[in-house]
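Q: A reviewer asked whether we had any structural model of the full assembly, not just the individual parts. We don't, so I'm hoping you can provide one. Inputs are below.
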Amino acid sequence: MDNRSTFATKLGVIAAAVGSAVGLGNIWRFPYELGQNGGGAFLIIYLLCVIVLGIPLIVAEFIIGRSSSSNVGGAFKKLAPGTHWNVIGYMSVLASFLILGFYAVTAGWTVEYLFQALKNGFAGRSPEELRDAFTSFSTTTYTPIIWLFIFLLANYFIIVGGVKNGIEKASNIMMPILFVLLIIFCIRSITLPGASEGLSFLFKPDFSKVNSSVLLRAMGQAFFSLSLGMGCLITYGSYFDRKTKLGKTAFTVASLDTLVAILAGIMIFPAVFSFGISPAAGPELVFVTVPNVFMQMTGGYIWSVLFFLLLTMAALTSTVSMFEVVTAFIHEEYNVSRKKATIWIISLTFILGTICSLSLGPWKEQTIFGLTIFDLFDYVSANILLPGGGLLISIYVGYRLDRTIMINELTNDHSFRIWYFKPLIFAIRYIAPVAIILIFLSGLGVI
Ligand code: PHE
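A: Here is a predicted structure for the entire assembly that you could use as a starting point for your response.
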C-alpha cells in the first residue's frame, strides 16, 4: 500500500494483461467448448460477447483498479466506503480458488506432456494410443498430483518475486514467442489432408445448434478467456501508471486474446478432422490432437517440446494473475507478509487441486449435479461466478461510480480526448447487465 509497485513499461502492461488473458482458456478450453457447443455458431456468439460485454467490462475493471490503486477488497472500501460493494472482492477470491483448483491440475498435465515430449514419448503412437495414454494418465492417483505440486512451486517463486521482476519480465519474453509459434502450427495444420472440413466446422455457423445453454457457455467462455469478472483486471489495473491508456489497453487485450483463441481453433480442428477424432471430445482434445499433429511434422520432436513449454508458460502467466488477486488482497487487507500470504494460498490451492484431480479418477463416481468436482468448479466459476461478478461490476461502474472519476481515468486526467465515452457508458449501464441477466435466466432454464 505504501509505495505500491506499477508495471515498468507500456509493453509490460500489455504483456502482463495479455499473459493473464491468454492461457489454457484459449488453447485448451476454447476448442473443446466450441466443439461441444455447435462449432461456428458458438464462435459468432462468442465474438459478440467479447465485443459487447467483454471490452466494456475490461475497461470498467481497469477504472476501478487504477482509480483506487488497491486490491479487489481495498478498492471498494476506498471507492464505496460503508457499503456492501466489497462483496465483489469476496466473490473474486472465491472464483480465484475455484478456477485455480482445476486450472492448476490442467497446467500440471501440460508439464507432464512437456516431460513426455522431452523424452520423445509421442513418437510412433497412433491417435488411439495417444488418447488412451491421456485417459490413463489423467485418471491415475499420484502422477498428476506431483505435477500439480511442481507447477505450483513455479508460481510460488514468481509471486514472491513480485510484480515487476516476476510477472512483467516473464510475460515480456513468453508472449511474443507464443504468437509466432501458434502461427507456424496453424500453417502446418491447415495443410493437412482433409483440413477444410475442420475449418468449415470452425467458421461455418449452423444456428440450428444454438440453444440457451450454448449462449450461456459462450458467455462463460468469453469471461473466462478475458480473465473477467473476478478482479484480476482490477488488480492488474491497480499496477498501471497514470500514462497507461485504459480504453486502448482493453481493446488490445481483448483483440489479442480473441486472435489466440481463433488461431488455436485453426490449429486444432483441421487436425481433429484429419485424424478422425471427435470434435466434442472434451478436455482431452488438445492433449490428443496436438501430439498427433506433431508426429506428422518434420522436426516433430522439437515442435512438441516447444509447444508444451509454451502452453505451460501461457498457463503460468494466467495462474500467476489469479494468485495475484488473492495475494494482494490478503497481503494488503490483513497485513500479512507477501511471502506468508503466498504460502497459505498455494497450499490451499494444492488441496483443492488434489481434490479436482482425484475427482477424475478414483472419486469419479462422486458427482454433484451429475458433474465431477473438476467439472463442477469449472462450470460454476466460468458460467456463474464470473458473469455474476461482471454483472455487479457493470452495475457499480454504470450506476454508482462518480462520473468524474470515470472521465479522469479514461482520459488520463484530460490529457487526450476520447470519442467512445457515450457508447461505453451505454454498454456498461444497459447492454451488459441486461444481456447477462437474460443469458443467465435462459441458461438456467427460467425463460
Ligand atoms: N484467462 C485465462 C485463460 O484463458 C484464465 C483466467 C481466468 C485467468 C480468470 C485469470 C482469471 O486461460
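A: Points you may want to mention in the reply: The two ends are 46 Å apart (CA to CA). The CA atoms of residues 245 and 412 lie 7 Å apart.
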